[in-house]
C-alpha cells in the first residue's frame, strides 16, 4: 500500500535587488514599480519553503532524506543567493527582472534538476511575511 | 512559455461579532454556539491571506501588481470590516451568521468582482491562530 | 546559592470592546479614539504573557508550578474576559475605559492577589501583534 | 447553492522519539538517521494542523462544529501522544519507525475513523518550524 | 495614583546595506565582516519595535496616542529607510557603518527628538528573526 | 561617547527529558510533575535566545562579532544538547532535574565562561511557545 506524503523543508537567504525592466524608460519603471525601482537597491530576508511529494519508503519511513534535500537547497540556492545582489551577482537575473515570481521560478528550475522525477516539487518564497509566491512547475 | 505562479497578499482587520441563528431559540443558540453566542459580542484580530493564481507577464515579471491587489483588499474588505461589529455594521451579515465560513465567502465574493477572471482566486481567513478557513469559489 | 529565574506563561482570550470616555462629547471621543470609538464595538484576540520572577527551588527545580500559575490565569482572567464584551460584561470596566493600558493593569491586580509576594509579577498584553503593553506594578 | 469551505484546527503535543529500523544494523541506522538515531531518544514540540473540507450548512454557517473537531483531536491524538515516548508508549509505533511521514499517516487514520465521510480530511504535522509533512489520504 | 505602563508599536522597512569600514583594507573588511561585506550589497526585512514608558492618563487611559507614535515612526524612520540603500541613500550612514547596532542607535536618536522627555524610549530592531539588537539611550 | 547596545542571537535544539526528583517516591513525582514525569521521557524543540550587552565598538560598529557568539553557542550548547536525552546523555543533569529553570541556568554558566566579563549576559529558553524562562546570572 503506497502512501504519498508531502515533506517540507525551509531555508532563508538575505539579498538585495531592484525591480527594473531595461526596455522601459526610467519614468515607466518608476511609475510601475514605485519604491521597488530604487536605483541603489533595497533588500529582503527571503524565506523559502520547499515541498516534495512522493511515496513513503516502507522500510525507512522517509519520502526523501531531509539531510539530502537540505544539501540540494544549500548548494543550489543558498550558496548562489545568500548575501548577494540578485541583479548584479546572480547570472540568472542578468536579463530577468528579479520579481518574487521570477525568483521562485529560477529556484524551482535549479532544484528540479537535483530532485528525482518520481517526486513532485513545489516552491514557496516569502519576500516579506505579507507578500509571497508559489510555483509548482505548471 | 507560460508559467503560472500563485501570489499571496496578507491584510488584517479587528472586528466584533456573535454567532446566532435568528430562527433558533436562545437555548438552541447557546447550546450550539456556546461562548460565541454571547449577546454582547466578542471579537477577533482577523488575518486575511489572498491568493491569486495567473500567468507571469514576461516583461514585468508580475502576475498582478501587488499594489493594485492591496487596493482591492483595502477598498472591499478593510474599509468595510475593520473596527466594525460584523452583525450590526456590515449589511452582508444582516441575515447571515458571521461564522468564519460565511465571512470568508463574503470576502471572496467581494474580491472576485474586482479581480480579472483570467486569475484564480482563493481566500484564507484566520479567526485566531488556531482556527482558520479557506474558500476558492467551488 | 539562590538563583532568581523569570518564568513566563502565555494565554489568550477573544473579546469585544470600544474606547470611550463618558465625560467627553461624542465628537471628542470620535476625534480622539477614531475607529476604536465605534459605538457597536470591535474586537481582538488578546495574547497574554505573564512573567513571574523568583528563586528556583533547589529540590523541585521550579520557581512556581506552571500548572498552578495556569490555574490562576484561567480563573482570574480567561473566565472573566474570554468571549466577553469588556465594556458591558466585565464590571472592572464599568467606569474605566478598556484601553490596553487599563486592561493590563486590571489583569496585573487580579493576578497579584493570587501570587505569593515573594514573587515579582509583570504582565504583557498584545492587543494585536503590532500594539502591545506591559505593566510590572510600579 | 452549496459552497465548500476548508476549516482548519491546530493542536500540539510534546513527545520523545528516535528513528530506527530494527532490521538494519546499528551502523546502518546511525549512518542513515544520524543524530535522530540517538538510542536514548530526543524530542519535539509537534504542531498539528487538521483540515476538513465540506459544504457549509446554510442554517448554522458551519462546515463542522470546531468544538466537536477539537474533541476528536484531543481524544485520538493528544491523549495518545502528548508527553509520551512514541517508540515505547504508543502501540502504533511498536513496529513502525516514528518518522514524521509515519506519524502524520497514523494521525490521519485515527481522525478519519471519527470524521464523517462527507468531509475530506488532510493533516499537516510540524516536527520543527523547519521540517513538516502533510498527508491527505491518497 | 500614577501607574507607569510600557506601550509598544511595531513597524517594518526593507533595505539594502553592506558592512564596511573605510579605513580598513578590502582584505580586513572581508575577513571581519565575511559575506556581509559584499561590495554589491545584500538586504533585510527590518522589523522595528518601539517601546515608550510613561504614566497612564487617568481620563483617556492612554500613555501616548498610538496613532501619534505611528506618525513619528513613519516620518522619522519608514520614509527615510524603507526601500533604500542604507549606505548610499541615507545620510546618517555616509560615514557610519550600518551595523544593526548603529542603525538602532540612529533610529533611537531620530525618535527621541519627537517624543516628549517625560517618556522613556527603547528601540528593538530585528535584522533577521535570528539576529536583533536593542538600545535604550544609555 | 560610549553607547551600550544589547545584541541577541537565537539557536535551537531538540531534546528528550523527564522531570523527576530521585529523593521523592514515584507517587510524589507523579503528583507534582504530572505528565512531565513520564518514565519513558517526552521532548521539546527548545528555542534559545542569548542576549549580550556591551559598548558598541566605534570602528567596527559591533558589540560582539555575531559569528563568534554563534560559535560559542554551537560549541557549548548545541553540540552538548541537540538530539540528546538531557537526563541520560548530558552530565550536567545527572543529579539535577532538567526543568526549564535548571536548563537555562546550566546554559548561562556554560556561555558565561566563554564571553568576556565586560559583557552582561542573559539567556531566555522557550520550552514551548507557551512556557519559557529567563536567567541573567543574579
Molecular structure report:
Six copies of one chain form a homohexamer. The first copy, chain A, has one domain (4-135): 6-pyruvoyl tetrahydropterin synthase/QueD (Tetrahydropterin Synthase, Chain A, 2-Layer Sandwich), CATH 3.30.479. Chain A has 138 residues and is of the alpha+beta class. The two termini of chain A are 28 Å apart. The mean pLDDT of chain A is 97. The first copy, chain A, has helices at 26-33, 66-81, 86-89, 100-112, and strands at 4-17, 42-55, 84-85, 120-128, 131-135. Chain A has a five-stranded mixed beta sheet with strand order 3-1-2-4-5. Chain A is elongated, with a radius of gyration of 17 Å. The interface between A and E is medium-sized, with 22 and 22 residues. Strand 5 (131-135) of chain E pairs antiparallel with strand 1 of chain F, so a sheet runs across the interface.
List the secondary-structure elements of chain A in sequence, H or E. Answer: EHEHEHHEE
Give the helix tally of chain A. 4
Number of strand elements of chain A: 5
Name the largest protein-protein interface in this structure. A-E, 22 and 22 residues
Strand content of chain A: 25-35%
Mean model confidence by pLDDT of chain A: 97
Assign an overall shape of chain A.
elongated
Assembly context of the chains? homohexamer
Number of domain modules of chain A: 1
CATH architecture of chain A: 2-Layer Sandwich
- The CATH topology name of chain A reads Tetrahydropterin Synthase, Chain A
User: Mind telling me the C-alpha Rg of chain A?
Assistant: 17 Å
CATH structural class of chain A: Alpha Beta
The strand line-up of the biggest sheet of chain A is: 3-1-2-4-5
Spatial gap, N to C terminus of chain A: 28 Å
Major sheet description of chain A: 5 strands, mixed
Low-confidence stretches of chain A: none
* Structural class by sheet pairing and helices of chain A: alpha+beta
Helix-residue proportion of chain A: 25-40%
CATH superfamily of chain A: 6-pyruvoyl tetrahydropterin synthase/QueD
